[in-house]
Write a structure and sequence with these properties.
It is a single chain. The chain is built from 12 helices and 14 strands. With about 325 residues, the protein is an alpha/beta fold. The protein starts with 5 loop residues before the first helix and ends with a strand. It binds zinc ion. Zinc ion binds next to loops.
């Protein structure tokens, strides 16, 4: 069987009752892909952000398929990011739908506001420790607070274990934890049809950022997001998927090639980071500035996440070490 084109893949998914709803977001990423699964239970995978515009579009795109929000019986939440779950509370209020998500993330999803606050504190501490000036962290914190209104708390009524199956009338989806882009990333696998609902674990047109975030268990330890993400990608690489339906952009029809490409890109970037550190010891912020100039200021947390991710790989390989210098930490080459 020849691999479908991305457009053909959407058609193939639709024939299997899985319909892509493209819901607008106010974020740079553009629209988010939610999926309607026409089965029993009638299911929505992700909701889009908490905005009137997103709600209108969700309603009208459901109506195009002859459905309404109050008919939904199950809401699946793929991960903790607000562009994916912001309308969850409204959808549940209107429909009474059950909510399935990774059990390990349930507490965080239920305490959205406190959790967002704790996430901000974690990010600020990390930024200061890696040399980002305080005024930049203050600016980012206010941006982050202004984004919070697009999120929502979510009460998970069907907490999923890693590997657990959700049974529908016509299909079974296996929930598989694939952390990296976020700690709660969960993909949903239809082994019979070889369709993987991957959300932001894999996106065709952009590299999913392995954003630094607090561990799901609430511990203070900083996770190695990129290390975890590469490990997750290698596991997905082994899956015999024919179609990967993403949280943004077009479906992926050759996930092995995409993953190989992403891992090669991370390898090149890691070498670039190593080169900068070998020249002279630098903070994460100095590395980000050397790589991206002013973007390291405007997108300070994102670029710092990238730098630390690659530095983690180098630390694990024994080629770089972290050296405490008062309040900040610098990376220096070993040997
Ligand atoms: Zn995301």
């Amino acid at each position: 069987m020849t691999a479908p084109t991305p457009e053909g893949a959407l058609g193939q998914a639709a024939l299997a009752g899985v319909h892509c709803l493209r819901i607008p977001t106010p974020f740079a990423v553009g629209r988010v892909n939610c999926y309607l699964i026409e089965d029993e239970p009638l299911t929505l995978v992700d909701t889009g952000p908490n905005s009137g515009k997103a709600l209108d579009e969700l309603e009208s795109q459901l109506a195009e398929r002859g459905h309404s929000i109050d008919e939904l019986e199950l809401l699946i939440v793929t991960h903790q990011h607000i562009d994916h779950l912001g309308l969850a509370e409204i959808v549940v209020q209107r429909s009474g739908a059950e909510v399935a998500a990774l059990g390990a993330a349930a507490q965080r999803l239920a305490n959205f506001d406190e959790d967002a606050e704790a996430e901000d504190r974690f990010a600020i501490e990390l930024m200061l420790r890696n040399g980002i000036p305080e005024e930049v962290t203050v600016a980012l914190r206010s941006v982050s607070r202004s984004f919070r209104a697009w999120g929502s708390r979510v009460t998970v009524t069907k907490p999923l274990a890693d590997g657990e199956e959700i049974r529908f009338r016509d299909r079974t989806l296996q929930a598989i934890h694939r952390p990296g882009h976020s700690p709660s990333d969960t993909v949903f696998w239809d082994a019979e049809r070889r369709i993987l609902l991957a959300a932001d674990h894999l996106i065709a047109h952009i590299s999913s950022n392995p954003l630094l975030a607090r561990p799901l268990d609430g511990s203070d330890e900083r996770p190695q997001a990129l290390v975890t993400y590469i490990d997750s990608m290698l596991k997905t690489r082994e899956m015999p998927a024919e179609i990967v339906l993403s949280g943004h952009g077009e479906p992926i029809v050759d996930h092995v090639a995409l993953i190989d490409d992403r891992i090669a890109k991370h390898h090149r970037r890691k070498e670039k980071v190593h080169g900068l550190i070998a020249e002279q010891p630098r903070t994460g912020y100095e590395i980000a500035q050397a790589m991206w100039g002013n973007v390291a200021v405007t997108q300070a947390f994102l670029t710092l996440s990238e730098v630390i991710g690659h530095a983690d790989l180098l630390v694990n390989e024994g080629r770089v070490r972290e050296v405490e210098d008062g309040e900040v930490v610098r990376y220096e080459a070993t040997g």
